[in-house]
Prior knowledge:
Elements: H1 7-17, H2 22-47, H3 50-59, H4 61-82, E1 87-88, E2 91-92, H5 96-101, H6 106-122, H7 124-134, H8 139-142, H9 153-174, H10 188-199
Helix pairs in contact: 1-2, 2-4, 2-9, 2-10, 3-4, 4-7, 6-9
Amino acid sequence: MSRYLSxxxxxKEFLADYNNPGGEIINKLYQExxxxxxxxxxxxxxxxxxxxxxxxxxxxxxxxxxLHYLILDDIALTVSRLIDPKKSAGHDTASFEGLIGSINDRxxxxxxxxxxxxxxxxxxxxxNHRDQRLAHNxxxxxxGKERLPNVSRxxxxxxxxxxxxxxxxxxxxxxxELTVFDFDGISDADLLIERLENKA
Length: 200
């Protein structure tokens, strides 16, 4: 049976069921993955079809291009945070590795680490964009001596799938919980496209 919890209620449950700092980390991962699915849901509504993308381009070409890359770059940064090492620049991170390290069961740690390795492998093209274009201005990329790999929509969907699968593997093992992150139905972006179509 599905149930709705507010952000505060969910955090309290996580803190009660996980050793510190695991409760805070799983709570943050829950938020990050849910937001990833939401961003992708809205992106697909805006740019997932030729009709909607063309409509936006015809009405506001510069803004639609800016919005397109703004959402994709935000997804790339969020995904990169999920696969951060346990420590970055000397600071603990709220990442999958940080969560796995807080679990007091060696066999579970090993199983989850294998799935994390799979997630990191699938994220490699996105991480290249994060490291060489978003977080830093790589000179070889700027002057064209090196090209960053394209990231397809199918690759993004696979990353989201593996990330949610790893999250649910951990939640299932610790609390017996399963979270469905997929969105369906009509999005705000769908309503926006409908309004624009009626005015075009």
